TrEMBL record:
The chain crosses the membrane at residues 12-32. Residues 501-526 are annotated as: Disordered. This is ABC transporter substrate-binding protein. InterPro entries: Peripla_BP_I. Keywords: Membrane, Transmembrane, Transmembrane helix.
């Protein structure tokens, strides 16, 4: 028989060898488990069902369109790294810095950003990154820094961003994003400022969102209201006003907007007497949202001609639907719904909403940061519009961003937010590197502190602007440390109507109000 011998019994040496092998395997498994990337990848942690942290690489959010854009950013980041680590042929190594995009990358029914907002913001930031990386000077990685769909996971993110500012090879020089004015974002901005990290809020509008290192490229609610005041002088109607305001606790934006409306229009339109509140849909459960029956009944019964809406755009369609369903709103008088926002959210310009508005002869009047007509060459587009559109349209074609992707202004404002920081880096780099040519051994890369210093030395002097941003939404700048609480000066504030005005009414269109300079021509750069 082939196997006729007895099995060999293990001696002490055999058992020792086996024990060593088992211990080695166990130790290796433990080390692998401790060092392998988690389900969200390097630099990220999983919080419930979403990833939070800071990364230059791709991760999954569960939304295919968002993930597609994240991969595009990760590819651009990898290319930037390759051009420093291993340039092709005889190309010089190109140094790079990092700018972080801190915002939610996931969404639910009560989140600060919808999936579409996230995608348009990502597309705008990616367009700015690509534009900057095709120019001379240093290149840029766009770090993805998700801080939770409810903006409440920011502490660990800020800690990691702070660490990256001290990276000697590729320092973090600034943060952009910060999509909403809430208690959580106020705390995050305060902490970022405490770490001396220049931060840009592309779509922040609450006038109380201020901190030393926090720069806002959007107009604030007070400046928006001044643009509306100019509009109302041209279109006074009968001054029968009504204020509809969001009573949700913790919503800094809506609270500030209500205060601004009452301050500027309260006496002329008797808003302290004529008003009604509702609970907005964005945030934690504070009761049944979007209850507009009381407001609609009072507006229609009193034949109000000017409604001031102090709430978020995602709640406005429900308000318009309630008005159109109220029998006493029969379209026998003109009604304006005045709002403030970055642009016209696509849900506000659907065929269904347009039918509802026409049923009651109503018009949305939006003091905004971006005019969608600029994309068609109308209403005197800003100087920086063409460069933005050329880059954005390539991304839109490659990734498909849905109809009206520019209307809400998010793409343009996130483009400008990144562009503001990159422009400050380029100016600093040129100054300390004798012209800013790409070289393997620059004198030194700008740091976050250098970028802050450069941003606060920008000046606006009439039609001359030294160091201004030539952006998708206008040419504007800042006027020194702490001036205007770091809100942009000369930012255009177009007033957009939907449904669009007739040609005859359009002849009365005002020149855009310019923040902190008014509506007179020649007071700001074109």
């Amino acid at each position: 028989m082939m196997f006729s011998g007895r099995p060999k019994e293990w001696g002490p040496l055999d058992w020792c060898v086996a024990l060593v092998v088992v211990l080695a395997l166990t130790g290796g498994l433990l080390i692998w488990q401790q060092t392998r990337p988690g389900p969200c990848g390097d630099g990220m942690d999983q919080h419930v069902d979403e990833c939070v942290g800071v990364t230059a690489r791709a991760f999954e959010t569960g939304d295919a369109a968002t993930d597609d854009l994240i991969r595009a950013v990760a590819d651009e980041n990898a290319d930037v790294r390759r051009q420093w680590d291993d340039p092709q042929g005889n190309a010089a190594r190109i140094p790079y810095v990092r700018i972080a995009l801190m915002m939610p990358f996931t969404s639910d029914a009560t989140s600060a950003m919808t999936p579409e907002m996230i995608q348009r913001a990502l597309a705008g930031a990616l367009a700015a990154q690509q534009q900057a990386n095709r120019a001379g000077g240093p290149h840029y990685q766009l770090l993805l820094a998700p801080d939770g769909r409810d903006l409440d996971q920011w502490e660990g993110v800020v800690d990691r961003l702070d660490e990256l500012t001290r990276d000697e090879e590729a320092p973090l020089v600034g943060v952009t994003g910060i999509p909403s004015s809430t208690t959580e974002t106020r705390e995050a901005v305060t902490e970022l400022s405490g770490r001396a990290i220049p931060t840009v809020g592309p779509v922040i509008t609450a006038a109380s969102m201020n901190s030393r290192y926090f720069f806002k490229t959007s107009p604030n609610n007070d400046q928006f209201s001044r643009a509306l005041a100019t509009y109302l002088k041209l279109h006074p109607e009968n001054e029968r006003g009504f204020l509809v305001w969001d009573s949700r606790e913790g919503d800094v934006y809506s609270q500030n907007l209500r205060a601004v409306f009452e301050e500027r229009f309260g006496d002329g339109y008797d808003l302290r007497k004529n008003n009604s509140h509702f609970i907005g849909s964005s945030g934690d459960d504070q009761g049944i949202p979007q209850r507009f029956a009381d407001a609609a009944e009072k507006i229609c019964r009193s034949k109000v001609d000017t409604v001031f809406f102090a709430g978020r755009d995602q709640d406005l369609p429900a308000f318009i639907n309630r008005l159109s369903e109220t029998g006493s709103c029969d379209g026998s008088w003109k009604l304006r719904i005045l709002k403030i926002g970055i642009g016209l959210e696509p849900t506000l310009s659907t065929k269904a909403i347009e039918r509802g508005l026409r049923t009651i002869d109503a018009t949305i009047v939006d003091a905004s940061a971006y005019d969608p007509a600029w994309a068609d060459g109308k209403n005197s587009p800003p100087r920086g519009s063409a460069a933005f559109l050329a880059r954005f349209q390539e991304i839109e074609k490659a990734h498909g961003l849905g109809p009206s992707a520019l209307d809400d202004g998010y793409a343009a404002m996130y483009y400008d937010g990144f562009g503001l920081l990159a422009g400050a880096v380029d100016r600093t780099y040129r100054e300390v590197n004798e012209g800013g040519t790409q070289t393997e051994q620059p004198v030194r890369l700008p740091t976050a502190k250098d970028v802050y210093s450069t941003l606060t030395t920008s000046t606006v002097d009439g039609s001359v602007c030294s160091g201004c941003l030539v952006g998708a939404s206008g040419t504007y700048g800042f006027t020194g440390p702490g001036e205007n609480d770091q809100w942009a000066v000369c930012k255009p504030v177009p007033v957009v109507e939907f449904p669009p005005a007739s040609d005859a009414a359009d002849a009365k269109r005002q020149s855009p109000y310019r923040t902190y300079r008014g509506d007179k021509t020649g007071v700001c750069p074109p």
